[in-house]
Design brief:
By secondary structure, the protein is mainly alpha-helical. Helix content is about 75%, strand content about 0%.
Length: about 140
Amino acid sequence: MTAASQERAPTGPVMAGPRAATSLFVWGWYLTLLGAALLLIPNAILTPFGLPPTEEVWIRVVGMFTVLLAHFSFSSARTRNLDYMRWSVQARLAVPFFFIAFVLAGWVPAALIAFGLVDVAGASWTWWALRRDAGL
């Protein structure tokens, strides 16, 4: 490495504050519970939203991915990974737009949009916490 490239080398990750970490920790538990329900009792989640009961494996695959996302949230909270927290806010704010598109396409009942509001609430909490931790 040259002297110039050493000067530009990263010094390490910027850490988020405790409020943001708490929001991701709580979000991780929400994802854990939702993922476990989708894995073990998927129809208990589907039918209240007007979706038909299913015995297909795909809803359980979604549950598995949800539990894996929970792992990322817990890891982010534990390490206070600021980048991941910012990315999670962006991704969670996108969820209701996808759900609205699914409703407009006629693929799901409109009740699913309410599920996306949970993502907006969680993302808003994390966004607020990031700003508070930064002193803004």
